[in-house]
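note to self: dont lose this again. the chain is below, predicted strucutre after it. 294 aa total, dont forget to put it in the shared folder this time
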Amino acid sequence: MKPIAALAAGLAALLSLGIAAAHVGAGGGQSPPPATPAAKPRVASTALCGDMWVLALADRDQILSLSRDAAGPSSPYAGEAAGLPRNRGSLEELIAGDAGLVVTGQGSSTQMRRVLGRFGIAELDLGATSDLQELADKIPQVGKRLGQPERGKVLRATFLHDIAAAADPGGDGPVVAYYRPDGGGAGAGTIVDAALSAAGYRNMQRRTGPAGWGGIPLEQIVMTPPGAFVVSYFDTQPPARNAGLGRNPVLRRAAEQGVVLPVPGKLWPCDHPVISQAVTLLAGERLRLEGAFR
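---
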């Protein structure tokens, strides 16, 4: 069955159950006018990034459901997510759940937005940013959509305070290379690159390329080694994939020399204010490294 046909069939099933009647009301079957958002809407999230924002800003009794990743190894709010319902991200269950706002990850489909709108359900597409100031400005915007404007303002102020406290006034910190279990890195245009810079490091990949999430070729690292490696997500992977750190001779030697800096993967799976904790952690490691290099 084609996707559009499947969608139509699913919606028809909902209508047959009488779910649509609760939303459409009298009006000859026409679409209802856009619903006025409640002060604190009932919220569903369909992806980990949305879960993180909802759990950071919404009241617990606002949360209708979260994604299946909400309590996974990459979630910094696994404890807070415990006991809350989960969803599979399907339109049928989102509509049936009577959410007032659905928080989606990056690049949700136009079709989803249209269908949710037809049932009077607003959507918040979080988008993506690779700039910490833009991230700070995003916090109160999300807070307002969740009906928590004051909480958003407080979280923004806390985030900016933590980032400023981690800054390196000298601006000439260690050169580092970022490494993930899949061999990927973090070049220009990534939130990890912004976090490394905020913590006082000079990101090798920003200067040598490639941009984005591709990795630095191993031969390049061998010929011009960085002062340290920042590694992440090894703590969220199965043991077989974690072995990559030991298999890589460059990383193994760096670990023996004490210049591998691990960052828990749950501190930056998304562009979210929790990344300030990664920046704070890295700033502390920078001070340790600078002391060792003297």
